[in-house]
Structure formats: structure tokens, C-alpha cells
Amino acid sequence: MKKNIVTTIVIATFVALVSVMAVSAQVSSRLKVNVPFDFYANGKLFAAGSYTLESISPRSSTATLKLSGQKNTDVAILMLQREADTTVFGQAVVSFDRYGDTYYLAGVSNPNERFAAHAIQSRSEKNLARAALAPKATVAVKIESK
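Above: the chain's sequence. Below: its structure in C-alpha cell form.
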């Protein structure tokens, strides 16, 4: 009987430690980026400026991030698809697809935390991509800090 109690305590302690390690491996809750151009995210136009990306669902198969600027109206909830390759850019960046002078948020990559995800193209971005005379270019903006 005493052996069963000790075994149960050891297993419970092990499970608790593994749970704590899994939580600590999640994506950083806040990333800051200074975007030098106007851009679209989730169908909404955002002005150039300083933005924070905050993880809302770090454990799901899709990455849900809150994008917020300095104004209360500069907010969007982004649903991104996680990438298998987390070293897409080799450094922590927010990437944008550019069509002429129009930018769309394309993804977030942070290889230090093994995180990368891309945005699903909006209908307006797909239409612009089809009509674009110039090819799409991807622009990466380095993440400032956590």
C-alpha cells in the first residue's frame, strides 16, 4: 500500500513538471514591431507605426494573434496557419506581401521560440495579386523586442 502511494506521488510530480515545461515552451506573449508603411491585416487598413502582436491561443494548430497599435481603433484579431519550418527568415520578423505600393501582413516568424505562421490571403489581396502588373514581393520587418 505504501509503495502504491509513493508511486502515485512520483507520477503526479512528473506530470506536473512536464506540464510546466510545455507551458514555458509557448510562443512569447508579446512582440513589438515598427512598420514603416501602411498595410492591410484581416481586411483592415493600418497606418505606419508601432504595433504589438500578442498571442491569444499559443497551443492550437492555428495561431491566433491580436494586432494592436497605439490607438484604440488599431486592433485586429489574426488567424494564422502555423508553419512547419520555423526558420523561414532566420530571425524574428513580421513579413508583408507587397503589390506595387500596397502591403498585406503575410506572416510572423520567431525562430528563437520555434514559431512561424502565415496569414491566409484575403479576397482583396487575391484580386490584387491577379490584377498586379508587377510581381509580388515579400518584405520583412524585424521585430524590435519582446
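The chain has a mean pLDDT of 76.
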